[in-house]
Amino acid sequence: MTDTDDPRGVLYPARLPTFRRVPAPDDLAALVRWFWIPVWRLAPGRTSRQNLLPFPASNLVVQHDGIVLSGPTTSASYRDLRGHGWAVGILLRPAGIVAIHQAPKEIRDTEIPFEARGLYDDICAAMTDPEDAGAQDRAVAIYGEWLRATLPEPDETALLANSMEDIVAGDRTVLRVDDLAERLSVSVRTLQRLADRYVGLAPLAIIRRYRLQEGAARLRAEPGTAVGDVAADLGYADQAHFTSDFTRTLGMSPTAYRRGAGGPEVGASGGERSPDPS
Question: Which UniProt keywords apply (predicted)?
Fold first, then answer.
């Protein structure tokens, strides 16, 4: 769960702005999956559209104009970048989000301002030269110290929620809610409460998100593999069900996505479109 080269979540990797992921140190790994830092500098009048299918999780993001807490999402989304800027974000584990917001389902498909003035001031001071790796390292260290000072140690139930996430992310054979409940040695009802409390999504939505992320990565990396074979490998009964889920979530068919995954596309603004890196 800490592999910063994990391709899932990024729909068009070839279009990324300058971007870096930093793994969480061991003492924060139960709270944070990784730190992520995009930096962009665009010509006047150009727009970079970040298309993404986010991980089923929340992010806390420090940017030049404030801090936002982004909740779990139920579909693909995008963010348009203009001018120049940066962000320093963290992808939160289930144990991490509840330490920051007690009900992640209440911020589903939205983002809210987050008040942490000291964290904001210190990271802005560190990121005066955002393209410098040393500045980014200092920002990550500051973020880590804030997390250690602010967030409590996760309890046993929160760690069980982390295990739920690890199993779904790491084992493609987990396809159904009862599969996951069995692996965790809990009832389906307990699993549903765990997912609702610590992620803000239903267990089946979490499973499908990881499988669709994997499907998108396979469609990009294996242009010669038939869509039906990808669907079968992900546990779908047939190609039609995979196509239906994929289209409903991403807003395009697997075939259309595969056609567009190779390089930049030009939007109405004339700008390169690129995905969110979290």
Answer: DNA-binding, Transcription, Transcription regulation
Contact call for residues 143 and 35 (beta carbons, < 8 A)? yes
Q: Is residue 148 classed as helix, strand or coil in its secondary structure?
A: helix
Q: Could you write out the DSSP letters of every residue in 58-114?
A: -EEEEETTEEEEE---SS-EEEEEESEEEEEEEEE-HHHHHHH-S-GGGGTT-EEE-
Residue 50 has φ and ψ, to the nearest 5°, of -95, 105
Is residue 117 classed exposed, middle or buried when 0-12, 13-18 and 19+ CB atoms within 10 A define those classes?
A: exposed
- 104 in Cβ contact with 97 (< 8 Å): yes
pLDDT digits (tens, 9 = 90+) for 255-277: 999 988 754 433 322 222 233 44
What backbone phi and psi angles, to 5 degrees, belong to 91?
A: -90, 115
- Tokens of residue 133, six digits: 């790796």
Q: Helix H segments across 116-155?
A: 117-126, 133-150
Residues 6 or more apart from 79 whose CB is under 8 A from it? 49, 50, 52, 276
pLDDT, one tens digit per residue, over 180-215 is 999 999 999 999 999 999 999 999 999 999 999 999
Domains of the chain: residue spans and CATH: 13-150 (2.60.40), 156-258 (1.10.10.60)
Which residue is associated with the tokens 């009802």? 189
Report the sign of the C-alpha dihedral through residues 120, 124, 126, 132, in that order.
Answer: positive
Distance CA 123, CA 66 (A): 11
